[in-house]
């Protein structure tokens, strides 16, 4: 009996049934692998160093840009509450207690929708030609973006700017929250030139 499309010319059993000639599980059809199903890292800092060139410095500037974007609505909100309190004879100032929780929600929504958007990047990251990807190459999504923001602010609150030192000691320039979430920030324009789509590797 022959097996069409098996590509086996050695005369032994084909691997179309899910097993290799050696008797072990095969990778036929790409349906599954014998390595536990864990895909490899999509971005290699040694064969593709341009993906990570200058990323750490640009992330600092991207953060500052995002800080401005986040601050403008917050400042306008505080001004509105202050003026509203004057008009309402200080009653409106009771809204000040909502300002801080609203700021946190606004930041989470901003990062979640930005990283979960088509560019997989915040406005600051887009201005600096950066984008966030999972370690296996997939784009970001809302929950990932929100968690990325929360962990970043927590890490910078405890470690201050020293958190950036972590990026100097790994080739992918990942920070603590990147390692925790399995994300990587790369040069966006370079990725479109040298890195295939993450889905094409499956």
Question: Can you describe this structure?
Answer:
- With 202 residues, the protein is mostly helical.
- It is 44% helix and 5% strand.
- The chain contains 6 helices and 2 strands, in the order αααβααβα.
- It has helices spanning 55-87, 96-115, 123-127, 142-159, 176-181, 188-194, and strands at 130-134, 183-187.
- A two-stranded antiparallel sheet has the order 1-2.
- Mean pLDDT is 82; it is low at 1-34 and 195-202.
Give short descriptive properties of this protein.
202 residues; mainly alpha; two-stranded antiparallel ribbon; 2 strands; disordered N terminus; disordered C terminus
What's a quick, concise take on this entry?
With 202 residues, the chain is mainly alpha-helical. The chain contains six helices and two strands, in the order H-H-H-E-H-H-E-H.
The helix count comes to: 6
What spatial order of strands do you see in the largest sheet? Answer: 1-2
| Percentage of β-strand residues | under 5%
- Straight-line N-to-C gap: 30 Å
Compute the CA-based radius of gyration: 24 Å
Spans where pLDDT lies below 50 across 5 or more residues:
1-34, 195-202
